[in-house]
Amino acid sequence: MDTKEFLAELVDAPGISGYEEFISAKVARVFERYCDEVRTDAFYNVYAKKTDKHGENMPKIMLAAHIDEIGLMVKEICEDGFLRFVSVGGVDQRILPGLEVTVHGKEALTGVIGAKPPHLQTADDAKKALEMKDMAIDVGVCGEQLKDLINVGDPITFKSPLTTLNGSMICGKSLDDRAGVAILLETMKQLDELRFEAEVYFVATVQEELGTRGAIISAFRVMPDIGIAIDVTHGDMPDAPKEETFAMDKGPIIAIGPNMHPGLSKKLMDIAKEYGIEYLVEVEAGPTGTDARAIQVSRAGVPTVLIEIPLKYMHTTVEMINIETVKQAGMLLARFISSMKEGWREWMNY
Amino acid sequence: MDELLKRLTEAHGVSGDEGEIREILKQEVTNLADEVSIDRMGNLIAFKKGTKGGKKLMICAHMDEVGLIIHTIAENGTLKFSTVGSIDSRVLISKKVKIGKKKHTGILGLKAIHLQEPDERKTLVKSKQLYIDIGARSKDEASKLISLGDYAAFDTEYLAFGQNRIKAKALDDRLGCSILLDVLKNRYPYDIYACFTVQEEVGLRGAGAAAFNIKPSMALIIEGTTCSDVPGVDEHMRSTRLGKGPAITVMDATSYSNKEMVNRLVETAIKENIPYQMKESVTGGNDAGAIHISGEGIKTAVVSVPCRYIHSPNSVADMNDYYSTSRLVEAFLKGCE
Q: Are residues B59 and B75 in the same domain?
């Protein structure tokens, strides 16, 4: 399956943290085509096992990218057809006015986020951002019928399909971290062209946005020898400090710092150089906000690395990535896995 | 109806750049009118001879919409813009726009929440702080796709949803344009001049010239007007209410409606059993402001379809209000003899 097509389907699929059933099934169906065995657990983490000529004493590698997305949740149903809401995950309230959303009640209902019109605001209000508590979703259905269709606690997703911009730039909602899930697919496809001896588990994790909860459970279950988290980091944005962001067209990013195993991170860089894959380095001073945070300390500890791709406007509905970096990350990971031969334990010597 | 409203609301027509919407309206109106012309300002005017003739009646809806215009291509390849017409900058963040004749997609992003200080999330972002990202890496790359002066319109799909509701950009005033098309299906006692005007959103610039040329004995303006029946707005501050029928204006910021015309609109609504409401605020303005002082002065009145969230990427209207407004305008025109 074409990776961009897969990504477009992922972006369309609803799946706020804790409500990943639908996207989980979708990912499982696609992974089945490339893997030996696919399973889903009670939390809807997807596990896809892939082997080639499985060597003796070869490691079990777990690659993890999260399928959940930030979104909203119904807090209160008002008589006149409006819904009050809360956020799930880190939502900047300033992106909300005028957005189109889907409310997943008994049916999927289209809604528009509205607020008090500008001409009715006080001069003071007009100088501030609108607050989430003052906004409401207009679903155009009133009274009893609305209560039949929607319950408090129903999840709400943003509507923003994958759109192609200039060249290889694409944008849409939830590319954090559906782009990472696309890297899992890309890695599988690239591995099909190579030989490898490791036992590879591709895991699409849930509830990352609420504290890497899916990774905690799935790393415990898989018991990997090596963990690889795949996530996004900040791409260059004109209004953000340059030193906190990364170029969009210089390849994937290898993170270093206490959360990452120094030997493995170095090996990743060596392999990137060997195969001429461009990459950047991000320094992370403590536990990262990614699945790597949980995988590293699972059971008796798991040597872990973190691969990221730059993404602009994280946690908005117009997240932007360069699709080329998805392919490059897949290539780097496939080469990394295929380079793992007897003696792989030495990569992790202190 | 859905198909036509979809075409009308998704077409571009930011004030000063009404070419695309004008062409669509021209095609639609040609079969309905006796004569179609475009005046010096760019207003589209459809003439339909009356059965009795004699008096001229102007009906008017503006075809332009609020949007953006590109004024600078920055070194980093992003675009700086001015708003065309009144747009609250708060509705621009995290939205997509289509730019220029080739409709390149651009997005209005904002520094990620993770990189903000907690206070920033409460701070208003002004439109001059925003920029459009088209995925270009440099000024050169962007300049191949975008020219200074290119207009940008919200990238929004028309959609019917909920109970008889629709959402789209530019319901203000493509709903009015669509009503003009509806009512032109009939012939009326008076000569009808249906005007699809330009540049309403930048200060009622088009309608005055149209009225000056036509010199009608009265003009009825059909608008999509602000509707504030949303949570957080006190009952007495709700200018119009969705689902309560066409809103008839007594006065607003730019004109008084002619009292005889207002009375006749109300009488017609009652007689024809059409729901109606009086617009309960004097804010806002519309083409009546330019038309009523055109030439030696022209009697005007305004009837509107209430629209929530006007001047945003997604405005919302009730189709029952639309049909009632269309019926009221038609009955009013039939009654003028």
A: no
